[in-house]
Fold:
Amino acid sequence: MITLTIDGVEVKGNEGETILEVARRNNISVPTLCYLESLTPSGSCRICVVEVTTEKRGKKKTWVDASCVCPIEEGMVVQTKSPKIMRERRVILELLLSRAPVSEKLLELAREYNADPRKYTAVDKGEANCILCGLCVRVCSELIHSYSITTAFRGVRKKVLTPFKIAQDVCIGCGACAYVCPTGVIKIIEEGEKVNVNNWAELDVKRCRECGKLFGPVIQLEKLQKDYSLNIDAELYDLCPDCRRKILENQITKTSGMWSTE
Ligand code: SF4
Ligand code: FES
Structure:
């Protein structure tokens, strides 16, 4: 066990844990934009910065670090809300807002940290609305294993793209990228019998065999059927969730009826 102090409170953590993990476990709030517990941290947005002080052989060292990637050390002293940190977060937010000026989440944080949303000229006239946090790319590769999107180019030209601008064969339309995106820029739009995933892929949608309702991308249902042995009758994949539930409920009622004593 490692003992450290966060905001004046003595806390404990395990070897290899980050400051953010220990802080959250102890109900100490630190803002994050590019961090998600189930993904490898990237330390890209810097909004989670904290002030860290360590003392080794009588020498004190203080620096500012991203808490989501900074491992804890014995005797470390961490400040998550010092005046310096509040200033740093304000500047980081003003810079991030130049990339995503209409992001509600960023504007909310800007109000909290007294940041000026118009301090810097908007990159791409604000159209990209992306802070390049990489969450969409990481969720697609690390959790969904689709590898449909990636980042391309460098500096102000850097963007999230599909390899060769085509994701048709690998994107399953799960929507995880849109779900995790902190700026809400990724749009998944149903267009008749197709679903358009942020103009990265256009996928066919399956119709329910029972009620005829459109309910899910064909490629996603095929992947579920192929990759996960869910022990589900293959025919159930042709049904929308409502019809599937009804059929399963009927089956259960029939089976339990067999054992009924009435
Ligand atoms: S699209 Fe959203 S999730 Fe992806 S890098 Fe940009 S801000 Fe992050
Ligand atoms: S949340 Fe830590 S750098 Fe983004």
Q: What stands out?
A: Residues 32-35, 43-48, 66, 68 surround FE2/S2 (inorganic) cluster (ligand 2) (CB under 6 Å). The chain has seven helices and eleven strands. The first strand starts at residue 2 and ends at 6.
